[in-house]
Fold this sequence. Notes:
540 residues; mainly alpha; three-stranded mixed beta sheet; two-stranded parallel sheet; 22 helices; elongated
Amino acid sequence: MVRKAAEKVRKSAEELLPTVVFLYIWGGGAGVGEWTERRRRWNLSQQEEVVKQSRLLDDHPEQDSLREFHFPARLPSPPQPQADSDVSEAFVKIVEDFMKGVSDYGASESEQPPTIYKVPEEMKNSHKEAYNPIVVWIGLFNGDNETRRHGVIRGYKWCCMRKLISRHHLLQEPERMPVLLRRCLEALEGVLPRIISSNVPRHHQVRYDHGLRQSILSIMLRDGCFILHRLIKYARIARREPANPTGSGASDNMVWGFVTCNLLLLENQIPFFVVQKLFQQLRTDPDESSDVLVASALRLFRSLRPRKLHSSAITGHDVHHLLHLFYLSVGLPEEAVPATHDDARRHAAPLSELPQWIPSARELEEAGVKFRSRKDAKSFLDVRFHGGVLEIPELELYDYSEPLFRNLIAFEQTYPFTPGHVTAYAIFMDCLVTSPEDMRLLHLSGVLVNQMNGERDAAGFFGRLCAEAHLASNHNYLAGVILEINRYQRSPRWRAALVRNYFSNPWVVMSLFAAIFLLTLTMMQSFFAAYSYFKPPKQQ
């Protein structure tokens, strides 16, 4: 029994010996030289692991976009000074390759950032149905959804393609149809790198095989012809020409209303130059400019625009996709955009300290601020404040307004070259409307017109839009307006109370002056009565 117990103790001591030695070295029992030698051997093994992974990536270039290195777990640094550095030459080389592999946005047209993005998950989680199409699926992000969910609209797209090709003036014989079809596919193949770059960043792109490239071309041809067919139809309407019957039950007004809304979803887009390329191949008038597509699209979305368009011309070269075209059409003209840097200089405040918050509409009214609908505005974003009057263009809210605003804000949050005006406007209105009383006040002022379903919470409309939106203070075009409102609101409250209680309408003003006049007469009568009592007139 004693021998067996001693054997167990000996085995346990052998198992614990490495741990005891490590703790001894860690605690300072070993010299610095011994620890440095151990550390040097560990660094050498780490360098070999890095070189091994680098060679593995060089042998598999198709994984270049997925360079994720898994380094061995680091030992905690000892309290003693180290003679060797963890920054090896191999590690520096890897970091340098990463730096050189990232594209420099804006260096050339081929290195521009994508224009069609996936909606960030933090924005999508709160209201997924606002970003997902329900009738028509467009583009590379929704090709699989269309195949699984709805084959009818896919068949209608092929029907639109056949109609566009068959109406061409060069196709007098049916056997010539493949000729024009080949021309369309070759035109799209010439811009295939731009198509891919519009959806995927350069540093995330992989080498596409022959089958995948053909699939992309097929999706672009089918969806591009579908959009082109709709735009040509509205071009005919604009010229007051009778449109050809579609011959399909899909022409119901309600259904096409959903289609129009689905064409303005961020993930449901194709590059606008795809539609232009197809138009150049399929147009019946060789002299017709592709700018007619812009006018047709604006006519298509006319019922969804919050306000009449400004007069600034939009060319097809400046348009990335249909949502971007709609964004340009409702934005502020350049001459109406206040300069944020000028606001900072005028108010002697740095850009980082410009205010982002204002009180609610009810609180501002108590401070003497008046709300008025601005009639001469060129955009619903054109907000002005002067002399205690806040002028906001009228905005009508419908059931489709929330998905529309959400996708406009998502486009601003993802695409880096947008001014962020819609996000700034939504945050501004979210500050004003915090309760049903605020909504009612702006409604009576003609600023907000609620046409939404009665079950929807109109007062929380802007709050839902701004749940995950972010905006830098130096990009807020309303920063000067917000600063002026806050200064006015912090002015003496007695003046605001006097204006609100006694100068709210002409009848109150007249009553006030009548009361002052009567009070003056009463004081004069009392004065003369007291004067005659203390100093009676002398009797002759």
